Amino acid sequence: MAGRLRWQTGRVVAIREETPSSKTILFDVPGWPGHLAGQHVDLRLTAEDGYSAERSYSIAGPVDGERVELTVQRVPNGEVSTYLVDDLRVGDELELRGPIGGWFVWRVEELLPVLLVAGGSGVVPLMAMVRERARTGGVAPFTFVYSARSAAEVYYADELAGRARDDDGLTVSLVYTRSAPAGSHRPAGRIGQSDPDDLGWKPGAEGRVYVCGPTGFVEAVVGMMLDRGHDPSTIRTERFGPTGG
Amino acid sequence: MAIVTRGFRGRRDASAERLPPGQYQTRDFPVLSAGPTPRIALDEWRFTITDEPGSPVRSWTWSQLLELPVEQPVVDIHCVTKWSKFGTRWEGVSLDTLFASVETSAGYALVHSYGGYTTNLPLADLLGGKAWIVYRYDGGDLSPEHGGPARLLVPHLYFWKSAKWVNGITLRREDQPGFWESLGYNNHGDPWREQRYTGD
């Protein structure tokens, strides 16, 4: 039996705006034990009077010593996410506990092709897998389908474009649901709405599928895959709702 | 001693005494599951209690389940991902009813679901008015993403113990970790003792 996950102090060392409603926050966490791509962490914020609030966030980056990188989306009226996105500054401290979750993870030893399907801020743990593959020189081919409302809401846009350009083993496909920028390969619309090949992944294909996003998105994508004959045992899901945040 | 996070005030919940440590109240009903929502035909649905040697002890079809006495628990539920939801209204069958005709000396239960999910509990956590197989939620049929046609409801433990798409229980003399219990989550999962992860 593993030991208890203990609360550790994390100090903010960098903050980067990802989109108008989200920020990537880099923490320095002395003694951080490391993590797998796809895992998450619990945060605990404590007010001066001792009141505290806990939330879980996916880790955006691969293992990097004592650095832990999160991307946080501001949830309207969210008790914790509004503080993290609007008020947190470099040098601030809070508590972290993790890493957590041993199912929605990818390891470089896994050689089979991978399909990643992200909806909105569900991109975060999948981006950790893309970055982990690059960090480790992984050979498993990755197909990454990322659904966002518009170009302004795409996280990691420049990095993704660069990685897709420089890496033959990584295919990135952006699906815009509300408005597609000029030159897009497809009109705005949900995954599979007009083109069943949006996922570029054939039934019977060997490999593993990771789907992460809001519940409605995950249900729609996975339902479409099951309709087309995909093996449910190859599909791993992680869902979240904008609940409290 | 917790460190203070500069400038964090937070929002006190008026019903904080109903919240286990580290939880916050939500009025939505979030969905969490590790894989696809399974597609289950009611005419093929079965719920089976199996004794450790592997022989089915009792099995119910969907129509047989619906004939059993109905209870309507109204309970607070607590998810390990931090949300709690107060006063959720369910309809289903008490595990006491299902176990009324089952003789066993086993101390543990491994709960099974369509789709392959498992979770483990001491049998004592399932009996004594503490657990149900529920098939209706908030006045309507239980939807597939929330575990329909039927799920386990064990509201005094974190909600991953309330297995969705439940189809059976294996009685065991020795405890055997289930799905999340093998992947870093606590073996028992009492929210009031904040037993979230292994070793808590």
From TrEMBL, chain A:
Residues 5-106 form the FAD-binding FR-type domain. InterPro entries: Cbr1-like_FAD-bd_dom, FAD-bd_FR_type, FNR_nucleotide-bd, MRET, OxRdtase_FAD/NAD-bd, Riboflavin_synthase-like_b-brl. GO terms for molecular function: 2 iron, 2 sulfur cluster binding; oxidoreductase activity. The keyword Iron-sulfur applies. Signal peptide: none annotated. Residues 180-200 are annotated as: Disordered. It comes from the Bacteria. PROSITE patterns: FAD_FR. Keywords: 2Fe-2S, Iron, Iron-sulfur, Metal-binding. CDD domains: FNR_iron_sulfur_binding_3 (cd06217). Its cofactor is FAD. Pfam families: FAD_binding_6, NAD_binding_1. PANTHER family: NADH OXIDOREDUCTASE HCR, PROTEIN RFBI. This is Oxidoreductase. It comes from Rugosimonospora africana. The lineage of its organism: Bacteria, Bacillati, Actinomycetota, Actinomycetes, Micromonosporales.
TrEMBL record, chain B:
Signal peptide: none annotated. InterPro entries: OxRdtase_Mopterin-bd_dom, OxRdtase_Mopterin-bd_sf. It comes from the Bacteria. CDD domains: arch_bact_SO_family_Moco. Coiled coil: none annotated. Residues 1-28 are annotated as: Disordered. This is Molybdopterin-binding protein. It comes from Rugosimonospora africana. Residues 35-180 form the Oxidoreductase molybdopterin-binding domain.
